[in-house]
Amino acid sequence: MILDCAIVGGGPAGLTAGLYTTRGGLENVVMFEKGMPGGQITSSSEIENYPGVTGEITGMDLMMPWPEQCQKFGLVHEMVEVSRVSKNESGNFLIHKSDGTTVEAHSVIVGTGSTPRRAGFKGEDEFFGKGVSTCATCDGFFYKAKEVVVVGGGDTALEEALYLAKICSKVYLVHRRDAFRSAPNTVQRVKNTSNIELVLNAVPDEVYGDAMGVTGLRVKFKDGSSRDIEVPGVFTFVGNDVNNQVLIQEDGTFLCDMNEQGQVLVDISMRTSVKGLFATGDMRVEAPKQVISAAGDGAVAALQAISYVDEKVSE
Question: Catalytic: 205?
Fold first, then answer.
């Protein structure tokens, strides 16, 4: 059986693509996601900018109803990892699964997202999971009534600093500049939070600790001076790396055109340089990295996939 559409990734983009392709008439649509659907947003502590959603809601709460809605229209969720997407001699796509099997598809929508980037300071890898974290929602509770450091200056860093400030006795916000890249309203909230101390024009130099975990972070300032901040927890939010591994072919090249940052080049309709292949969400070029944008990408790609498959099958 040849799938009408294979969707790789189960975040907001993949789920929306699944909803629109199935409801739009495509049959045999499978979403490949090795874990529970929902994507990176499920680890966010609070969502306040999704249209129509008011009050306090977590990323997990926001995404909870999405899979059921998609499956109502016939989307199949296969809990397996996709190792690679390639094209075969007949012009269809091959979905290579981690269990060694393959499945053929007329079209593919990829939405594998991105992964939080490591900040790159000494001791970060050694103490990752032992006091160094990239998820305040996951690990913040362990530092209740304790002091922690947050590293970063974007929306995510500031939002998670605000979240941690509700749990922890104090939050040191370390940023390499003296101004933030976050929304003005978020910056103001941070400045108005009494237990958040701004440590500006500073970069993390080394996290240190003992067999029990982290005990402190040394930061260096632009003027060459340094400061030791004694904390048991360090949270880093310094950007993301694109999860583009499924597009890497056996010879090391990419299936479609990419930019130097490893982001997929797409047009306004989410079409890649390969016909029938669409890229959505955080992995595509100039992605806003917002849930609503990823969902919009999924809808646009799905509508294009429907047109592509209808035309291809009728040939």
Answer: no
